[in-house]
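Let us practice reading a record.
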Amino acid sequence: MASTQSLVTDLQKLGLRSGMTLLVLSMWPSSVSSSPQTLLDALLDVLGPTGTLMVPTFTYTSVDPPPPAPMLAEAATQRAPASVFRIRSTPADIQLVGPLPELVRNRPKVKRSHHPVFSFSAIGPNAALLTHAAPFHFPFGSESPLAHLHRLNGELLLLNTDQRSNLLIHLAEVWAEVPYLVSTLRVKVGRERWRTMRGKPGCSEGFVKIEPLLRQARLIRYGEIGSLPAQRMNVRAVVSMAVALLKGAPDALLCDSPTCAFCQLARRCTQKPHPLPPRPHIELF
């Protein structure tokens, strides 16, 4: 089993160091020898008391989407009813974000953003800034924890996953003003209260298309943490590359699956003609 010290060495080889503000996006296979707790101990050791660790602590327990079309009526009645998000007690969904975020959420002095679906948790000096006043609409856009991470010139670690998990590209979609950010989500916010969230992030299967560009620009540092593949990137560099790409071609990071309803609709949105602004009236003297 990998020790904390061996993981510390691996993280340092990847360029992580004391004082960094780091977002970790990870998936944890059951076959790996080390534990998520060992990884967390190693991350906190490397970042030190002046560093900050942030993870996604997402949960869909407050969401009430309609059941999928193939679901039978009797199966639909067995779905757990939506519950109100509680910042201190609602656990992260490990099926969505892996086991590491739930360990972080349960740490002493952790800070968690209050978004009922797309919350983040952080430990360290910048934790309060990263998680403060997260917006309900466009949860990965301006004033989100991701935007604060960008302002702090943070770093991103992808562990045992790839660009499909890269939440920073959703931030780039907002800043590039792609025309397909129209999805909504119905969220329970009180005992009998619901709100419709605008700017729900969509499909990320096409995000893998940006990796060759990031690699060619030498913006990714590859390595291994224990036995797991890892990628480290600078947040500002990744977002700048993605924004430039999407401004030139808004459909560049949509997936190509003919069965993906989101990307098929999004691609049609990008192909709609945008009329020129009306010609200004000019007075002739």
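A brief commentary: The radius of gyration is 20 Å.
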